[in-house]
Amino acid sequence: MIRVAIADDQVLFCSGIQMLIESQDDLEFVGAAYDGEAIEALAHAGTPDIILMDIRMPKVDGITATERILAAGGARVPRVIVLTTHQRDTAVLRAISAGASGFLMKDATPEFLLASIRTVHDGKSVISPSGSLALIHDLSPERPGPANDAVLASLTVRQKEVFHLAARGLSNAEIAAASFISETTVKSHVSSVLTKLGLASRLQLVALAYENRLVR
């Protein structure tokens, strides 16, 4: 069972999500929180696998709550899917940098929401790297100066190559073809890159690349 919680200050919206989650055989609804402080407490007490996190909430905003929950660590660190009403909301980029595994529009279809929960639970991002590339390009401010290659100092030469290709939005299959290695090897390199850089997802990888002028 995939344990799902939601953080949103709209009680009716939370109730609708609860009904949707409870209609699925492989999902379990473990609670709703109506402010940022409450979802932090629920994350520790209810041990959800997935948290659907609104960005703007009373007391503590969703970005701060995401940072705190993920920084707390523990045996079961939940994955966070950010909920927003505006696709070009600059807070989305901040949420991804904070560790969110992706984002969803609040008007997404029930089918897409359910598929996203399962996708993120499998360790993937809600949106594809190619889709996130356009989003982050639009939201990231242009920063003058040279590329900050120092952030990649812990990576091997091959891992740096994979990083740059992934940051451009290439899929595992495309990276494998460009680097003349297998997809299995690509997955292993991507996993190592995320671990060494302290990133939670490929979305964060793309954001990091733009923030440090490693891709244009």
What attributes does this structure have?
Arc Repressor Mutant, subunit A, 13% strand, five-stranded parallel beta sheet, single chain, 216 residues, Rossmann fold, alpha/beta
Short note summarizing the structure:
The protein is 50% helix and 13% strand. The chain has 10 helices and 5 strands.
Would you give an account of this structure?
This protein is an alpha/beta fold. The chain folds into two domains: 2-127, Response regulator (Rossmann fold); 139-211, Winged helix-like DNA-binding domain superfamily/Winged helix DNA-binding domain (Arc Repressor Mutant, subunit A), CATH 1.10.10.10. Helix content is 50%, strand content 13%. Strands 2-1-3-4-5 form a five-stranded parallel β-sheet, with helices on both faces. Helix 4 (90-98) links the parallel strand 4 (79-84) and strand 5 (102-105). Helix 6 (129-139) runs parallel beside helix 10 (202-211). The longest helix has 15 residues, at 183-197. It is globular. It starts with a strand and ends in a 5-residue tail after the last helix. This is DNA-binding response regulator. One of its GO terms (biological process) is regulation of DNA-templated transcription. InterPro entries: CheY-like_superfamily (IPR011006), NreC/VraR/RcsB-like_REC (IPR058245), Sig_transdc_resp-reg_C-effctor (IPR016032), Sig_transdc_resp-reg_receiver (IPR001789), Tscrpt_reg_LuxR_C (IPR000792), WalR-like (IPR039420). One of its GO terms (molecular function) is DNA binding.
